[in-house]
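Let us practice reading a record.
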Amino acid sequence: MTKEEQGFLEIWFRDYIHRFRNRDGVLHPMLELKRCHSLRVAENARSIAASLKLPEAGQRMAEGAGLVHDVGRFTQFAQYGSFWDADTVDHGAEGRRILETQDLPLLYDPGDRELLLCAVEYHNRNRTDIPRSFSYEQDRLLRLIRDADKLDIMELVLRTIASDGFRDLPMMLPHVCLCRELSPEVLKEAQNTRSVSSSNLSTLADFLVMIATWFYDLNYQPTLRMAIQRGILFRIQRELPETKAVSDVFACITDAILTGRK
């Protein structure tokens, strides 16, 4: 991605989001949350790419993809009032649709254009649903954006819990309540599969266990270092009940990190 293309993308992103402001120029709080999230994911992506020593064009591509990875969230929330993909739209696929149909000078090189679109479309998919036919460059960017996205979501969730108990979670995910009780099936799934299906989430505690299992799905050492430096795993566990089952789940995650068997 050239510096000029990155500039075009940043201007388009700003103007696109402006369409969702009310007459007073204010975004709905949930959309403001996604706007800020997108800026931080772009920053994370740039940092990860720089740590991986990607060339400047690759770092700009990572930053640009991070910026627009969640554009599908804006139409999703505007139409459905929810960020729950299962009951609305796949926001990754919606993001690709938006980028393909908007009148914007996206990228001059068709290969770079597809690189960006694939990262947006698949950033939110389960690991098992990601095609194995991607090129090395497509796979690398997608993994990087998934890392940058997860890193900010984990930090955002913890910051929001600390500030107001994550009172807006039921608005974002209507089927999830703020209860701190854990669903037995979530703990079992985390222990047996190293992941948690979003369809099994019922409580805030379930949600916290799910994001803890994301440590198994971090692709790059710079991402893992950033997460460890921020104390994210410890902070997640601190918000959960002090039970043996919870301790066992986090012990397995810690062991995987220490031994490199993620």
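A brief commentary: The mean pLDDT is 91.
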